[in-house]
Specification:
alpha/beta, eight-stranded parallel beta barrel, two-stranded antiparallel ribbon, TIM Barrel
Length: 292
Amino acid sequence: MFEGSYVAIVTPFKDGKIDFENLKKLIEFHIKNGINGIVPCGTTGESVTLSYEEHEQVIDFAVQTVAGRIKVIAGTGSNSTTETLEMTAFAKKAGADGALLVAPYYNKPTQKGLYLHFKKVADEVAIPIMLYNIMSRTAVNIEPETVAKLHTDCKNIVAIKEASGSLEQMTKIQMLCPKIDMLSGDDALTLPLMSVGGKGVVSVVANIIPKEVSDMVSAYLKGDIKKAKEIHFKIFDLTKAMFIETNPIPVKTAMALLGLCSDELRLPMCSMEYRNKEKLIKAMNDFGLKVK
């Protein structure tokens, strides 16, 4: 159901408010460059600093702007099951193609708690669900056995964004539930993940190079491994530069340098350190994105 290249799209701000004019331009930019779908209100979209009203506005705006041309997977996860239910129900009502549910953060649920959390949302909201496993942000890992049980018990849990950084874990998930759509949550591991059965990526670097990411994933899915490897090596250093500081600081800085949107962030996210910005600019110039 969810295969290909998806962009974890930023939320552009202007003077402290959401810049919907630029958000529209960004969505059109991605559609033009072959992205298969957008993921608004994820980590890269600074979802945790959006008010509930803003969160709903961004999801609704994304769905209306896309108008069925590509898929929209709305980030609706929270560390509260009640809040997750409410946001996921809104995403369904708005017409999103799916919901991205991050593992509850800070409160560190057990594997049983994770299972009950995701199952409750899946049971109560009839929308395709993509689990999101990113222990570096949530402090808890969704173990492969938990993923497999959820995939088996809940027909609408159809995908997982895997950002554990562990190919061993990704391989185990693929072995336990080979029919799940597993997408990379780490740009640098997209190609390795696809080699063990992954279906694509929810990408950060695609915010600035959507065509290259889309071409790499598409090439691999079509069996052109040589072309996919060439693109993987070409974008690797730029991809790593997106994580010189906490995401989305580098990618928003890069987008501002390219004139795509403002580099405005919401606290506690802050502007990039000068020495790191110099490293980012070098990586962009080395890739061929000419900035000063």
